[in-house]
């Protein structure tokens, strides 16, 4: 088991921007996947600068992507310090159909370079640029015949930082999944505990939402499962609910949460239950009892009481406790 703590040395540190600042062999074997990972890293930087991170709309994103890809495709790293002088004086005359000054005036490029330099000098940002390369395939390589469990702990980060870091990691996972051959066997399982705020309904769109929805839609075809948990179904995007194949529903106290679940189940209560009957069951469930609905079993519902788990259920660990558990 390995514990990764981005931005802290309690567990293994993670270079969140490694797709940009460290040249990957994927540029030779899977350039499309490498380009997707690069795009996520640049979006993270632009979010930190308070600028538009959209790859299709943002001039800053396009400029940084073009500059970085020139280096990475040539076998070189594209660290931020290397890109700063090229932002001011790009080594090409045009982007698309416009000359470089028509695409982005020199004053705007100078402001972007200054903002990047300030970010580069920030001690807190420096901690995100140290540690292991973000490489999902390496995380899943067997060790002594067993596949390790990789835990990404972000409890020490604030809400915005969590969304930014997890967005980059999930984009990397999505890129890795799309490079796999199809499979009917489970080769990996992504578990996201307490997804509140990371997969919200429209129109909210944190950086975690797009890759999570895409993974729930398509990853099963590649042998990758996704398990999400939340106490509040009202806070989940409808596309996540509609793509869930297995539901384990505990006691839901509010009418809004029960209505959201029943809407997501598309009125397939199973076993002759009406929506009203199922709603009453969800309201009256005792602790550790669940209504389970399996889409592959025709939508039939059943009651389940899991066995007691050998867990202290003590909550998140502090950085000191993680460090002590690692023997560091």
Structural commentary:
This protein is an alpha/beta fold and 328 residues long. The protein folds into two domains: 14-129, no CATH class; 183-322, P-loop containing nucleotide triphosphate hydrolases (Rossmann fold, 3-Layer(aba) Sandwich), CATH 3.40.50. It is built from 15 helices and eleven strands. It has helices at 18-21, 26-29, 31-48, 59-73, 80-88, 100-103, 106-121, 123-126, 136-139, 159-178, 209-218, 238-242, 255-264, 275-284, 319-325; strands at 2-4, 14-15, 94-95, 98-99, 132-133, 150-152, 188-192, 224-228, 246-249, 290-294, 301-304. Strands 9-10-11 form a three-stranded antiparallel beta sheet, with no helix packed on it. Strands 1-6 form a two-stranded parallel ribbon. The chain has a two-stranded parallel ribbon with strand order 2-5. The chain is globular and about 65 Å long.
Give a quick summary of the entry.
The chain is α/β, with parallel strands linked by helices. The protein is 43% helix and 11% strand.
Entry keywords:
three-stranded antiparallel sheet; two-stranded parallel sheet; alpha/beta; Rossmann fold
CATH C-level of the largest domain = Alpha Beta
> What is the molecular shape?
globular
By CATH, the topology of the largest domain is: Rossmann fold
Unreliably modeled segments: 267-272
Count of extended strands: 11
Mean pLDDT comes to 87
In CATH, what is the homologous superfamily of the largest domain? Answer: P-loop containing nucleotide triphosphate hydrolases
Strand content: 5-15%
Per DSSP, the total helix count is 15
Instruction: Tally the structural domains.
Output: 2
**CATH architecture label of the largest domain:** 3-Layer(aba) Sandwich
Radius of gyration: 23 Å
* Main β-sheet, spatial strand arrangement: 9-10-11
Main structural class: alpha/beta
Relative helix content: 40-55%
The span between the termini is: 15 Å
Q: Sheet with the most strands? A: 3 strands, antiparallel
The topology string of helices and strands comes to EEHHHHHEEHHHEHEHEHEHEHHEEH
């Amino acid at each position: 088991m390995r514990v990764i703590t981005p931005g802290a040395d309690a567990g293994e540190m993670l270079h969140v921007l490694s797709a940009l600042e460290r040249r990957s062999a994927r540029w030779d074997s899977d350039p499309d996947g490498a380009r997707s990972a690069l795009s996520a890293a640049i979006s993270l930087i632009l979010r930190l600068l308070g600028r538009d991170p959209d790859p299709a709309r943002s001039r800053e994103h396009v400029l940084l992507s073009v500059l970085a890809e020139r280096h990475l495709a040539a076998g070189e790293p594209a660290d931020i310090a290397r890109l700063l002088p090229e932002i001011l004086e790009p080594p090409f005359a045009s982007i698309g159909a416009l000359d470089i000054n028509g695409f982005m005036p020199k004053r705007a490029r100078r402001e972007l370079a200054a903002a990047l330099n300030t970010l580069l000098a920030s001690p807190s940002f420096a901690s995100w640029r140290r540690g292991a390369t973000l490489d999902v395939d390496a995380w899943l390589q067997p060790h002594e015949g067993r596949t390790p469990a990789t835990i990404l702990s972000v409890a020490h980060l604030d809400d915005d930082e969590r969304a930014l870091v997890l967005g980059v990691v999930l984009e990397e996972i999505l890129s890795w999944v799309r490079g796999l051959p199809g499979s009917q066997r489970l080769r990996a399982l992504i578990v996201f505990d307490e997804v509140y705020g990371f997969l919200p309904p429209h129109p909210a769109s944190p950086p975690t939402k797009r890759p999570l929805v895409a993974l729930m839609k398509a990853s099963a075809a590649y042998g990758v499962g996704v398990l999400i948990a939340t106490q509040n179904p009202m806070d989940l995007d409808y596309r996540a609910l509609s793509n869930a194949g297995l539901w384990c529903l505990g006691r839901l106290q509010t009418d809004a949460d029960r209505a959201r679940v029943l809407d997501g189940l598309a009125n397939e209560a199973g076993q002759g239950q009406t929506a009203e009957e199922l709603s009453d069951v969800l309201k009256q469930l005792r602790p550790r009892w669940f209504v389970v609905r399996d889409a592959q079993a025709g939508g039939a519902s059943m009651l389940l009481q899991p066995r007691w788990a050998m867990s202290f259920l003590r909550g998140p660990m502090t950085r000191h406790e993680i460090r002590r558990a690692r023997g560091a």
